[in-house]
Amino acid sequence: MKPITRLLRSRHGALLVLALVLAALPLVLPNAFYVDVAIRIALNAVVVIALNLLMGYTGQISLGHAGFYGLGAYASAALTTHFNWPPLLALAAGACATALLAWVLARPILRLKGHTLAMATLGLGIIISIVINNEQQFTGGPDGMAVPSFEVLGKAVTGETGWYAVAALMLLLMTWLALNLIDSPVGRALQAIHGSEIAARVAGVDTTRFKVRVFVLSAVVASIAGSVSAHYIGFITPGMAGFFHSIELVTMVVVGGMASVFGSILGAALLTVLPQLLQAFEGWEVVVFGVILMATMIFLPRGLVPSISLRLKGGRA
Amino acid sequence: MLTISHLGKSFGGVHAVQDVSFSVREGAIHSVIGPNGAGKTTLFNLVSGIYTPSSGSIVLRGEDVAGLSPDALARRGVSRTFQNLQVCMNMRAIDNVMVGSHLRLNQNLFASMLALPSVRRKDAACREEAAQLMDFVGVGKYIDAEASQMPYGALKRLEIARALAARPSLLLLDEPAAGLNHTETDEIETLIRKVAQSGVTVLLVEHDMKLVMNLSDHILVLDYGKTLAEGTAAEVRANPAVIAAYLGVAA
Amino acid sequence: MLAQFLQFLFSGLTVGSAYALAALGFTIIYNTSGVINFAQGEFIMLGGMLAALLSGAGVPLALAIVIAVVVTCAIGLVMEKVVIEPAQNAQVVTLIIITIGASLTIRGLVQIWLGKGTHSLAPFSGDTPLVLLGASLLPQSLWVLGVSLGLVAALAWFFGRTLLGKAMLATSHNRLAAQLVGINTRRVLLLSFGLAALLGAVGGILVAPITYTAYDAGIMLGLKGFVAAVLGGLGGGVGAVAGGLILGIAEAMTAGYISSSYKDAVPFVLILLILFFMPRGLFGAKSAERV
Question: Torsion-angle region of residue B205: left (phi > 0), alpha (psi -120 to 50) or beta?
Answer without folding.
Answer: beta
